[in-house]
Amino acid sequence: MPTITPFIWFDDDLQEALDFYVGIFPNARILDEHRTENGELFYGTFTLAGQTFYGMNGGPGHPLTDAFSLFVMCDDQAEVDRYWDALTADGTPVACGWLTDKFGLSWQIVPRRLMELQADPDPARVKRTVDAMMTMVKLDVAALERAADG
């Protein structure tokens, strides 16, 4: 059975990215590193939250875009804050829980509670939740709940 693994092209900072990501996520690790004849890292395999990724130093010319992002489901506001703060270090907050890290990789840092509120059977609560989310940069669980409650 085939497996599907995200493959991320970096310009030349894969080692820094691997160290950065593995330092943020619990139980993350670098699985292997493949180097060129002169010892430079060419590609590597790593895991974050049980998901395997391949990364490659491919050089410039193929920049990352927000058309592809990694979605991090967080259990509570403290987890949202922790991942948000770590991934926006030298990165860029965007909107609605999205950010771009210092390597150009896009992330969505989303509290589980948002997904629950968006699945509410009351369309008015859902609309208020979504309207509130659309005004936020980093998602705020308490503010989303207040908005849903009207």
From TrEMBL:
What span is annotated as the signal peptide, if there is one? none
SUPFAM superfamilies under this entry? Answer: Glyoxalase/Bleomycin resistance protein/Dihydroxybiphenyl dioxygenase (SSF54593)
Pfam family, any one: 3-dmu-9_3-mt
Organism's domain of life?
Bacteria
Q: Where is the PhnB-like domain?
A: 3-110
* Name this protein carries in UniProt: VOC family protein
Q: Which organism is it from?
A: Lysinimonas soli
